[in-house]
Structure to design on (174 residues):
C-alpha cells in the first residue's frame, strides 16, 4: 500500500491528526481565556482595576480574539475532505496557472495552498481576513502588554532623594 501522505507527496495538505490537535488546543486556549476574562467582569474585580490591569486584560482579549479566528480558520479546513480540497483548488485556479502540481497546508500562517506548475500558488478554504487579522490582533496584544508592563513598573518605582539631594528611582519598599 502506498502512503499518500509521505513527505515527498506534493498533494499532502494538512495532516488530519495535527489538525485535530491544533483545533483542540486552540479551542481549549480560547475557553480558558474567555473564562478568565469573564471573571474580570465581576463588580468587586472591576473596582480594583488599574490602568496596568486594564491594558493586561485588553492584551488577553486581543489574544483570545486571535485564537477564536484561528479556530474559525481551522474549522474551514477540518470540515472539508481531501477530495473537496482538490476540487476547490481546481475551481479557484486563477488564469495564468496552466495546471496544478501540488497542495500543501501551513499552520502558521494558517492556510491551504494550491501550487501551480508555473511556480505560483494561491490559498483556498481559509478566509482571506484571517492572517491580517491575526497580525493586527497580536500586534495590539504585544503593545498592550508592553504598555501594561511599563505602567506597572512606573507605578511600583517611587522617586527617592539620593545622598547628594538628586532624585533617583528605587523600587518601592526598599
Amino acid at each position: 500500500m502506498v502512503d499518500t501522505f509521505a513527505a515527498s507527496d506534493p498533494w499532502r495538505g494538512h495532516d488530519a491528526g495535527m489538525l485535530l490537535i491544533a483545533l483542540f488546543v486552540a479551542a481549549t486556549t480560547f475557553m480558558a481565556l474567555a473564562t478568565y476574562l469573564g471573571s474580570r467582569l465581576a463588580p468587586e474585580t472591576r473596582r480594583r482595576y488599574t490602568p496596568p490591569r486594564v491594558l493586561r486584560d485588553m492584551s488577553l482579549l486581543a489574544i483570545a480574539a486571535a485564537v477564536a479566528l484561528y479556530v474559525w480558520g481551522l474549522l474551514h479546513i477540518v470540515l472539508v475532505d481531501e477530495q473537496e480540497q482538490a476540487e476547490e483548488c481546481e475551481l479557484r485556479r486563477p488564469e495564468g496557472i496552466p495546471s496544478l502540481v501540488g497542495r500543501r497546508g501551513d499552520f502558521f500562517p494558517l492556510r491551504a495552498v494550491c501550487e501551480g506548475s508555473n511556480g505560483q500558488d494561491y490559498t483556498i478554504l481559509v478566509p482571506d481576513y484571517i492572517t491580517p487579522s491575526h497580525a493586527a490582533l497580536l500586534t495590539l496584544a504585544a503593545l498592550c502588554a508592553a504598555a501594561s508592563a511599563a505602567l506597572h513598573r512606573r507605578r511600583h518605582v517611587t522617586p527617592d532623594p539620593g545622598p547628594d539631594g538628586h532624585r533617583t528611582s528605587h523600587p518601592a519598599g526598599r
Q: What stands out?
A: Residues 51-78 form the longest helix (28 residues).
